[in-house]
Each structure stands twice: as structure tokens, then as C-alpha cells.
Amino acid sequence: MTAAIDPLTMRRAMGRFATGVAVVTTSVDGTPHGMTVNSLTSVSLDPPLLLVCLTIGARSTDAVVRAGRFAVSILSARQEQLALRFARRGEDHFAGLEVTHGRHEVPVIPGAFAHLECDVERDFTAGDHVVVIGRVRGVCEREGEPLGFLRGKFSDIVDRGHEPIHWIF
Ligand SMILES: Cc1cc2nc3c(=O)[nH]c(=O)nc-3n(C[C@H](O)[C@H](O)[C@H](O)COP(=O)(O)O)c2cc1C
Q1: Which domain holds residue 14?
Q2: Alpha carbon of 35 to ligand 1 centroid (Å)
Q3: Which residue range or ranges hold the Flavin reductase like domain (predicted)?
Q4: Is the pLDDT of residue 1 over 80?
């Protein structure tokens, strides 16, 4: 029989899967909401769908579901402090922060490596998270380097300088 996998073991094992870091933002009745995520995954190219997994009960989770739209700002290497700011529970994540606004007044993080603006296509509960599938309506990309996350720590993602491998898939 397989031993039960406790949350710490799950976090540690999945922490070996290196990711980028993003901030999911939305706005409800003029109030901005946002949280740091690394659960961002591409789901479909045509139609363009992505997903994020948001903790049940987090303020931003309810806000995203209520608003029916959200933006994903993929953070650049220099935005570690923003990643920390948007991960602090119970704080006003936007206090003193200049944001720009995308479609439908959803705030986006200035200087991010990329923005993807989405409508909520579907949301469903899975364990202790809500899986939110977004249909991408707008994209903005910038030059620079992304912020990485590996084994519970922020990290750099190194470009090895090879040709892109788009031809494989
Ligand atoms: C690098 C990093 C990645 C995170 N990824 C997620 C995630 O994918 N989903 C999630 O629900 N929380 C994630 N968190 C935790 C949330 O950012 C944190 O709980 C946040 O404060 C909750 O937002 P709230 O203030 O709206 O409740 C992550 C935190 C960090 C630092």
C-alpha cells in the first residue's frame, strides 16, 4: 500500500518542477485584488486557454470567480519583491503600488515579462483549490528575463542560447 502523501511532501516534490512566477489580478466593484501564483499552465492553443489553481477561501479566488475575468502578469526577473508583496496574506496588496489597467479595468502589473488578459471559461473545485480556466483575450509581451521558482526559492532561468524547438510539437 502507498503511504499517504502529506501536504509538505507534496509541496516539496512538486517544488522540484521549476516554474515561472505570475500575479493573478482582477477587480470587483472597483476594488483591485491580486495574488502570486506558480500554478499557471497552458491548456489549449486553439482556442487559447490557460489555467491557474487558486486556494479556496483566498480573497483573490472569490474575486476572480465573481468578476468572471482576470489578468495574469508573468513576472520579470527583477520583480521578486512584487511576488512577495502579492503572497502576503491579509495585506492590501495594492497599497502605494502604481498599476496600469487592461480590458474591463482589470489591473495589470507594470513592467511584467508578459500579460495575458482572460475571461473565466470554467471554474471547478479540486481538493483545496479552485481550478480556473481562462480564455485569453489579449496578450502583451516584453523583452527581458522571467523570474523563476524552484524548491521554494526564487531563481533565475538561464537561456542556453539554443534555437527554439517549436518544430517538435
Ligand atoms: C511563488 C509563489 C507561488 C504561489 N502560487 C500559488 C498558487 O498557484 N495558488 C495559490 O492559491 N496560492 C499561491 N501562492 C500563495 C498566495 O500567493 C498567497 O496565499 C496569497 O496571499 C493569497 O492571496 P489573498 O491575499 O488574496 O488571500 C503562491 C505564493 C508564492 C510565493
Answers
A1: 9-157
A2: 5
A3: 14-156
A4: no
Give the type of residue at 127: G
Mutate to test the pocket of ligand 1, among 25, 27, 38 (most ligand atoms within 8 A of CB): 38
What secondary structure letter does DSSP report for 168?
G
What are the tens digits of pLDDT across the range 59-89? 999 999 999 999 999 999 999 999 999 999 8
H or E element, residue 60: helix 59-67
Residue 63 included in any domain: yes
Site to substitute for ligand 1 among 23, 53, 55, 81, most atoms within 8 A of C-beta? 55
Distant-in-sequence, close-in-space partners of 50: CB < 8 Å, separation ≥ 6: 40, 41, 42, 43, 72, 116, 118, 133, 134, 136
Domain at 26, CATH number: 2.30.110.10
Number of domains in the chain: 1
